[in-house]
Amino acid sequence: MSHEAGWAHAPGALRGPAWLQPPADPNALVQHLWSQTAHKVDGELHVGGLALPELVADVNTPAYVLDEDDFRSRARAFRDAFAAYDVFYAGKAFLCTAVARWVQEEGLCLDVCSNGELTVALRAGFDPARIGYHGNNKTLMELRRAVAAGVGRIVVDSFDEIERLASITADGLSTRVMVRVTAGVEAHTHEYIATAHEDQKFGFSISNGQAFEAVRRVLATPGLELLGLHSHIGSQIFDSSGFEVAARRVLALQARVSDELGVALPEMDLGGGFGIAYTTQDDPSDPAQLATEMSKIVEHECRALGIPEPRLSIEPGRAIVGPAMCTVYTVGTVKDVQLDGGAVRTYVSVDGGMSDNIRTALYDADYSCTLASRDSAAPPVLSRVVGKHCEAGDIVVKDEFLPGDLRSGDLLAVPGTGAYCRSMASNYNHALRPPVVAVRDGVARVVVRRETEDDLLATDMGDQ
Ligand code: LLP
């Protein structure tokens, strides 16, 4: 049925946001929002060669389904497109030991930003020399551990941290570092995930001279080997103009370091943040296009400044794991709510919510979803997919056209949930965090199991 057929905008019907158009075929996937092996057979969603209704009959819902081939091919696409660079997979997007191994097997490096992420990486046998360690408030203990483990680079974020590192290297140890700078760029993304403007907690400001001072202090600290400057402007960014401004400012600092301190910094990191398509309104660049644009910018600026080109690195997280995962839920309650003005919004409640995907509530993020267990001939209605938590803001998908005959027991799948969903999942309302099931060539492997009630109670010490 099509938009023109007249069902979509019946009198009093909700229209939703302008970018959301009723689908021409409500049963079809919008393919580019899904992982590469996702397709439907008679209305059943298949990923990695497995029918999801069968899969969840085993593992239950909600469940994150991770398309291993898709993950690996996105990792390879970055590695190949940025062959002259080092590509660090940003583990904060999603990390478990299996994924750390895939990252290593595909020839990427790994960015960790906490002691916990480092633990997972080391447990997976990840080569510490290929790990970069981030964080705005690394403790002395954490730094000691990272240095002792032999991580390849520590990305220094404050003068306090330089002092902490100096106290470690005073014992005769040494480590490679980068200095994280803020380039004063207003990235066009949600305020909470923009990181290169001045008024936030990360990095040293280039404009007020702190970044230069940090470089000077690092260079003056025995045992610290300065690899170069690091800039991460934010996340879910689509246009390269932010990277261009940042690269220009970072390279200008690099030229100043060369002029005034006589040091040619060999490397530079431009961070991550490459956007993905959550809905039809997003139009991300592919890695090859990004690589061409970024290389051109750096080449051009270095030529203009008369400095040698540093070896570049980047840190994509979302763009590798985001599209590789979807979340499968079971529909429970379906409720039509009459709004002021007479329109009706259909609320579809699923068996998860803000505990497995906080991004909608936290960043006002948009997602899409599809009925994953059958075809439906019912006219789609504009629906809102909500969770089962005690909060009105517990929304998974704000607006989606879903079949009007959706009922309890149907499966819904939400694409693009690989990044920052499981990694930011919580036990709110004592929810059990869902498993991550890797699928490939018709085989499913639980790489992170579902939490149990014993897990929930494991830290509850009782009233002793
Ligand atoms: N490098 C650094 C220094 C970062 O801080 C981040 C993300 C990345 C790389 C990876 O960015 P990506 O390529 O994944 O966008 N929780 C938010 C995103 C926070 C990102 C934090 N840093 C979200 O759900 O959108």
TrEMBL record:
Sites bearing N6-(pyridoxal phosphate)lysine, chain numbering: 92
Catalytic activity as recorded in UniProt: meso-2,6-diaminopimelate + H(+) = L-lysine + CO2
SUPFAM superfamilies in UniProt: Alanine racemase C-terminal domain-like (SSF50621), PLP-binding barrel (SSF51419)
Cofactors required: pyridoxal 5'-phosphate
GO molecular function: diaminopimelate decarboxylase activity
Keyword annotations of the record: Amino-acid biosynthesis, Decarboxylase, Lyase, Lysine biosynthesis, Pyridoxal phosphate
Domain Orn/DAP/Arg decarboxylase 2 N-terminal intervals: 69-322
Main enzyme class: lyase
E.C. numbers: 4.1.1.20
Superkingdom of this protein's organism: Bacteria
Record's function text: Specifically catalyzes the decarboxylation of meso-diaminopimelate (meso-DAP) to L-lysine.
Subunit structure: Homodimer.
Family: Belongs to the Orn/Lys/Arg decarboxylase class-II family. LysA subfamily.
The protein's name: Diaminopimelate decarboxylase
The organism of origin for this protein: Nocardioides mangrovi
